[in-house]
Amino acid sequence: xxxxxxMSSAPVRVLEEALGMGLTTAGATTDExxxxxxxxxxxxxxxxxxxxxxxxxEIPDDNFSIPEGEEDLAKTIHxxxxxxxxxxxxxxxxxxxxxPVIPEVIEDFLCNFLIKMGMTRTLDCFQSEWYELLQKKxxxxxANGNVPDVYNQIMxxxxxxxxxxxxxxxFKQAADKARENLLKIQKERDYHRMHHKRTIxxxxxxxxxxxxxxxxxxxxxxxxxxxxxxHQALLKEKMLISxxxxxxxxxxxxxxxxxxTIDAGQNVHFPIITVGHYCEKENRPEGPTQACLxxxxxxxxxxxxxxxxxxxxxxxxxxxxxxxxxxxxxxEFPIDMQPSLDVNLxxxxxxxxxxxxxxxxxxxxHELPVSCILxxxxxxxxxxxxxxxxxxxxNIPKGNVLLTxxxxxxxxxxxxxxxxxxxxxxSSGDTTVKLWDLAKGDCILTLEGHSHAVWSCTWHSCGNFVxxxxxxxxxxxxxxxxxxxxxxxxxxxxxxxxxxxFPFSNTLLTGSADKTLSIWDARTGKCEHSLYGHMHSIxxxxxxxxxxxxxxxxxxxxxxxxxxxxxxxxxxxxxxPSPSNEVNFDSTGRVLAQASSNGIIHLLDLTSGHIHxxxxxxxxxxxxxxxxxxxxxxxxxxxxxxRSWC
Length: 646
Known about the structure:
Elements: H1 2-19, H2 27-36, H3 73-91, H4 106-117, H5 120-136, H6 150-217, H7 220-263, H8 288-306, H9 315-323, E1 359-364, E2 370-375, E3 381-386, E4 390-395, E5 400-406, E6 412-417, E7 423-428, E8 432-437, E9 443-448, E10 454-459, E11 465-470, E12 475-479, E13 484-489, E14 496-501, E15 507-512, E16 516-521, E17 526-532, E18 538-543, E19 549-554, E20 558-563, E21 568-574, E22 580-585, E23 591-596, E24 600-605, E25 611-615, E26 621-626, E27 633-637, E28 641-645
Antiparallel strand pairs: 1-28, 2-3, 3-4, 4-5, 6-7, 7-8, 8-9, 10-11, 11-12, 12-13, 14-15, 15-16, 16-17, 18-19, 19-20, 20-21, 22-23, 23-24, 24-25, 26-27, 27-28
Protein name: Sperm-associated antigen 16 protein isoform X1
Keywords: Coiled coil, Repeat, WD repeat
GO cellular component, one term: axonemal central apparatus
């Protein structure tokens, strides 16, 4: 028996090792079996009964009817209600409670395994020995004596694994999305950081501009007082002139009566009367040119009175000569002009174009922004104009100030040198154009007529005419000899920002904030042609030294080149978005310099199309100019400095 128990326990150990379970702690299962009773497995063969021997029981019919004579309405209603209740019960779905899945017990698993394999003798031995142990209560099974359902566990594990993979995929997607959001937030952070820095720079610039404007407008109150005093003085002078005019009219009436008496043959003493035009100019200090002109006119008058006249001048003629002052004659526009060999405007320098300029010197000449730089035609000098109402003549390259001109009551916008190199014309925000003697720095003539600020001015090649462009949407051509406006050019619909004479001709070029360039005939004051193409306000326009190309720039940084002979656009170069303040050609005509509001000087090679940059300004670059030999480049900035590049 012990041998059989050892033999029967060996397969159980093998099964325990295969199933990963132990059968030694089965006390709870033994107690349950003892409580419920002992069951034996027997092999029983069930025979199929024959249909002939089977007796069927007759089922009575439920469909009964109410016997006649016993019909009652209440009973009928009660039967109908019961039938409805039965029908509703049958129609309802019977929901059975779910039966929990109970794993197989170990002994049942072993018995089923032996039956399946056909090991009947082993099964009989196992059952006899097993139930003997149960009766003796010797078995010691584990607390969990059930065989695990491996397939269900595998399915559960696979389902859990699949769910974990889905979660992992979702987490990866969430991580990728978080990474993209992080990159986007970093880019936004960098953008806002740059925007913050730009805002700080603009704030600093606005603060500096505000300080400059405060300094600029600090002189308005005393200027208004001075103008008020001048107004009162002019009113007094007007009254005096009226009295003097009435007195002169009375004397003229007396002279007319005297002339009638002379005609009658009577002798009368003729007083010498001088009647002239009294104006404010007589009270102003005369410049050297005005003094020379006045002396020459008086000398010419004396010569005309004494010229070959042996007879004494009639008193009536003397009176008429003294009553009517000399009228200044207008200058004539030249018809055929030839380029002068002494003027460098039409010369083209044979030297190669230069682009490798480097900052060599900084000239601190003005307190406010520099608005214009102009090179002297022959000497190593430059003229600078500024918003501090001063112009200065500077020796280059040392930067020594030779002459300073003051007289404008507002900022200066531009200047131009007379072809004879001894005069200077300046335009200003005080609505005037002034002519200066470059030898002494004195103002010799003031041209008044514009109603708003004057942006630019230019000399005619003959030297007798000055043209000016103004914020009042007009341009004017001034006759220097007669000191009056010859023509007012109407046609632009916005401020005229630039004006320049074509070299050695009567053609005038203007650039306006209405986005157009206009070409005028100075002899008639009429517009001959207009050039369209700019999308923004034009700030400056200029000719090449030969005059066959026009360069223009606008407030969006776009530069356009035009063929002046065909009046067609050649090319458009966008160097924006910073505004272009001024453009200028070098003496070779192959390099175009542009002063930009971002403080960069752009050099455009017209041969290859390459653009070179010069960076050195700490603020906006307002103006730029080349020397005649091309060795130096000068640029003016909003900080009042002029930078020298070589």
